[in-house]
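FIELD: query
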Amino acid sequence: MGQTRKRLGKDGKPRYTAYYDDIRGQRRSAGTFASKKEADKAWQRAEVKVSEGRTGEPARGRQRFRDYVENTWLPNHEMEASTREGYTYAIHKHLMPEFGGMRMVDILPEHVRAWITKLKNQGMKPVTIQCNKIILSAIFTTALDDQVTYLHPCRGVKSPPIARKPLRIVTPEQFDDVYNALPEGTFRLLAETEIESGLRWGELSELRPKDLNLKTRILTVSRTVVELNPKFHPEGGHFLVKDYPKDKEYRRFKLSAQMTEKLEAHIREARLTRDDLFFHMPPQDKPRARITEIPHGTSCWAPRPVIVCSFDHALFASTH
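FIELD: result
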């Protein structure tokens, strides 16, 4: 139960401090007042808020946006390492200059609208504006849940519309141009596997013989690899292997007999074990710069000759 404590102020006059117990049972101050009656009302109001689940403290809303994001939200918000990397860059580049010095409680929908208008006038693409607004909204959703604020400034604020563009599907002729420009062997096999399976790049890079059942021709997608700045890697590395695909659900599908035979032959020729990568960078004495120009023709999708760099830079060592 709350209580009021009397003390003398610097001017010698009595002051009354109201105390109440928070949800953890810790005694907290609800403020200091000139009369006992006001102090009693203060701790009683605080206890009502605790019983209703409204445990926020006004002082928490007065902290700066920068302090809340850097000290509370970013360290504790659950997200993928690659998402954390992207969010951190976006926050410091686009959110902090606008909101960093503002108090959490002072940020209102009008400020978010003005910020979106500023980004639009600076020439930022609608999809990038939307991504930044999503991050800002996520921050304030957490702040609202934690009762740091009692207003969500992003709700009801619209961002510029995003036009949905049709996907451009590569034609057989276009694939042939790329395929023939690649060196024979592993690189062409990688391209064939990609075009048949439709795997994401991180899934294709992490593909291993144990993922393919040679008898049933069933391929199981159960891992992916992402490239990170070492400061966002749990162990300071450059590549992070995740034991689940991007959509967090294993996928299984059947490859063609021709594709399975090529992969099986590659396993034999390269003497791969179950846990080796299907596609890995062979050791080299020095970096190899190989650039191939695809001949310009009617089947090419670009209006001028297309330069395709070797896949060497994108393939990973067998241990990542």
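FIELD: remark
DSSP finds ten helices and ten strands in the chain.
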